[in-house]
Amino acid sequence: MGYVNMVLLEEPIKEAITIKNYIGGEWVESEGELIDVVNPATMKTIAKVPISTKDELDAAVEAAKEAFPEWRRTPPLARARCLFRLKELMEERFEELSRIQTMEHGKTIDESRGETRRGIENVEVATGIPSLMMGYNLEDIAAGIDEYVLYQPLGVFGIIGPFNFPFMVPLWFAPYAVATGNCIIIKPSSEDPISQMKIAELVEEAGFPPGVWNVVNGGRTVVSAMLDHPDIEGICFVGSTPVGRDVVYRRCGETGKRVIAQCGAKNFLLVMPDANLERTIAACMTSFYGNTGQRCLSGANLVIVGEGLNEHEYNAFYSKVVNAFVESASKIRVGYGLDTTVQMGPLRDKSKKERVIGFIEKGIEEGAKLRLDGRNVKLVGDWPHDCFLNPTVFEDVTPDMTIGREEIFGPVASVMRARNLDEAIEMIHSNPYGNAASIFTSSGKWAREFQYRVQCGNIGINIGIVAPMAFFPFGGMKDSFFGVLHGQGREAIRFFTEAKVVIQRWF
Amino acid sequence: MSFKGGSRLEKPNVTASTIISFAEKLEEDSAKFYDELAKRYVEGKEIFLSFSEESKKNKTLITRTYQETISDALEACFIEGLNLSEYLTEIRLEEDTSYSDALKMAMELEEKARKFYSDAAEKSESLLATIPSAFRKVAERRNNRKSKLKSLLEGI
Predict the structure, then answer these.
(1) A291 part of contact set with chain B, CB < 8 Å
(2) Domain A10-263+480-504: what homologous superfamily?
(3) Would an 8 Å CB–CB cutoff place A276 in contact with chain B?
(4) Furthest-apart CA pair in chain A: how many Å?
(5) What pLDDT shows up at residue B70?
(6) Contact A343/B14, CB-based, under 8 Å?
(7) Residue A5's pLDDT is what?
(8) Which of A88, A107, A116, A432 is deepest in the core (most CB within 10 A)?
(9) Of B29, B71, B77, the CB nearest to A118
């Protein structure tokens, strides 16, 4: 009965599984090539995923199209009940679903459980569809004439998921799409597709009619076929800015599709002189190093602001913050996420680690001061080092340096100096991204100024990770978002419906 | 029989899941311990069985609260300053352990458990309110048990 057995949780996947597509309520083997899904902590192959063909995507669209007329006629309350059952099944399988995320992505078990919870929250919110989908009306717009708005589903939607949140991100969209009466095709990331397969199993068990919820695995061929398919009404995409802006957004414009493209980020966290340092540093650790820095809401640039301080005071404040940050970062326990004592897992794969190392080398080359070098890998447990890095901290970074400007998507913090709040906000605005920004302060005045002026879609005040709850939209501006309406909550309901105006008069 | 309340933890740790796992294990072990006491000492059988049942409920409460609260958005993954080794209790029930000695061991277990839950509540104050609230609730239950055990001891 010792903790030795308990520290490393049991893996739910014992042998490599072969993933199938879920089309029209059937599990269909793909004709495409199979590629390995590797656990980045152990480097063991845990699944084989198909790179599906265009024909297979077409078959899924056909199935969805066929299911749509009956599904849209299904009363919203009945559709909500399917979602209630799905939620219950997700709760029952909560732990298994969470451990699978750790195995296929590498994140810690706490992070995976958090992701599961956030995914379920979207299902919960969508169960409110009878209220959420209501239109509005006004009597007597003219003599004896009434006018009202109906929200109606459009048909088939495509959802393209990223690798960093394999369970949650497709659920920013899918529950709202089906709740409003649409049918969907999800293309999970081929790097970690198991979670979406598991969700589809639960969808089947929950009794969704065949064709309402489809999953087609694959890569560019499937994405391309989705973007060009005339029977897909809209696309939800979460991924990099080059793909989101130059491929997804552009092609959706050309083919007349609705689009939500949530993309890259370079998030700034400002520390003001009056910040509660202990709480700020704790929040920064999860912000910069949570999910191994692989999230679009991760802190990237830590800006220490000297508003109201003279040079001597500022230097002392700067050193205090940096030293506390480095000390905390150096204590983070890195290892396999199924070890419950671990605080940071590996990067998703070797190439991503190499990419991050490239940024670290670039930072050194461009003159930033390396305070903590994560390339010196120290792990809890004896795991292959292939995908692991420890936390890295750079000092004296400027906004024009590569590491201060570009999205690293890894556990690297760049510390910057700003004399005052204006200068710090200018730094944020000089960056092309506009996903999230936070300020740590005890001053309502500074906080208000920050939230009012900063051009980012998600603003944090004493919050490290500005992740909107399911009943709020997931914001994003500038190069971080392409589209009009965002995922989650009421905006998602609007995205997945068309407003139809009816004006009536009876003689 | 040898019982280690919370068992051995080799290294200090700060993740939320470790603390939750510790609590879950503590409740599992406590339930087993009181089941064993109920078998051995008929004088306190009813109370021991009720403690065992309560520990099972405590475990459910802690697990549910954690699973319903944890979120990637909150600072739930880094709870610092709890050294779990401070809350370990080594209790050894021998063949000839007397009823009064068993009660004293149980009181020691309850005091360590109460302290663990109180400290965990304090350290998790910055998280969503449900987490410290659950810890406080279990701390209170553990404290009540200690009082009941004391009464049993005084009644011998």
Answers:
(1) yes
(2) Aldehyde Dehydrogenase; Chain A, domain 1 (3.40.605.10)
(3) no
(4) 82
(5) 81
(6) yes
(7) 36
(8) A107
(9) B71
